[in-house]
Amino acid sequence: MKNWTADNIPDLSNKRVLITGANSGIGFETSVVLAKKRAHLIMACRNQQKAEEAEKKIIDIVPDAKITLVTLDLADLDSVRQCADVVLKSHQKLDVLINNAGVMATPYSTTKQGFEIQLGSNYLGHYALTGLLLPLLKSTPGSRIVSLSSSAANFAQIDFADILTERKKYKPYEAYGQAKLANLVFALELARKLEASGSKTISVAVHPGVSPTNLQRTSGFLIGKIITPLISQPADKAALASLLAATDPMVKNGTYWAPSGFMHVKGSPGAASIPKQAKDLNTASRLWKVAEDLTGVKYKF
């Protein structure tokens, strides 16, 4: 995978790709490349106006781009269900689902259903969306699910005693790390469940490294204005790990992809090592049950 670039992506004509958070940052740059490669994009975004603006920008770059917009607020499970219903009714196939959207180190708040915002949006919303779309994915030959984690997962733990931060003092970066570790644990457990069921759909994980996108808007002066610019790469480069995971024929079920440079913060995408805490099968089983209970979404394998 050394020096992998967008030039390695095959023609994606007749492929349908749904990407969450497609209107800005890494999601937008991922969408641009997929459009150039002739994929039919399903851009799932919370803000309709911003989605339309992003669609126009892509069409300015790729005039014959095939784009469908769908509203998705991952902080509202009603919106997640409505989004999934629209996709299931409007599309006969889904080749790739990229669980890209996320919030980072935000002040304490909750989703519509009352869950801590980072775990609720980054993990629970994507868990629900993936489960609702799974029948369509499973019926599409060669389909894959790409879930975005973060290097923050390397230093995180899942606090099952207070997973929604209802009792302990809220620490934004600690909550972010937990949510992104949850995404990685989810992607790996989903891979195991798909394989055990005999499905040909695969589940893989990605972390994009460090990039100065809108995700950094609440990260504070030191990180957002000083550290990030020193160690980051532009969003179009950070998108390469997602693009590799979503499109490269060599990608296998249950793998993890990230920039290959120092500490995986930037560089060409390649295979990443999985932190020990993400491999724990007991953690995976407990976390899956938490998501199942909180969202009410039960996967049908």
Spatial strand sequence of the major β-sheet: 3-2-1-4-5-6-7-8
The appropriate CATH architecture is 3-Layer(aba) Sandwich
Number of domains: 1
The N- and C-terminal alpha carbons lie at a distance of: 32 Å
CATH superfamily: NAD(P)-binding Rossmann-like Domain
The ordered string of helix (H) and strand (E) elements is EHEHEHEHEHEHHHEEHH
The helix content, as a percent range, equals 40-55%
Protein name: NAD(P)-dependent dehydrogenase (Short-subunit alcohol dehydrogenase family)
Family: Belongs to the short-chain dehydrogenases/reductases (SDR) family.
Pfam families: adh_short (PF00106)
InterPro entries: NAD(P)-bd_dom_sf, SDR_fam
Identify the notable features of this structure and list them briefly:
301 residues; alpha/beta; Rossmann fold; eight-stranded mixed sheet; 10 helices; 8 strands; 43% helix; oxidoreductase; NAD(P)-dependent dehydrogenase (Short-subunit alcohol dehydrogenase family); SDR_fam
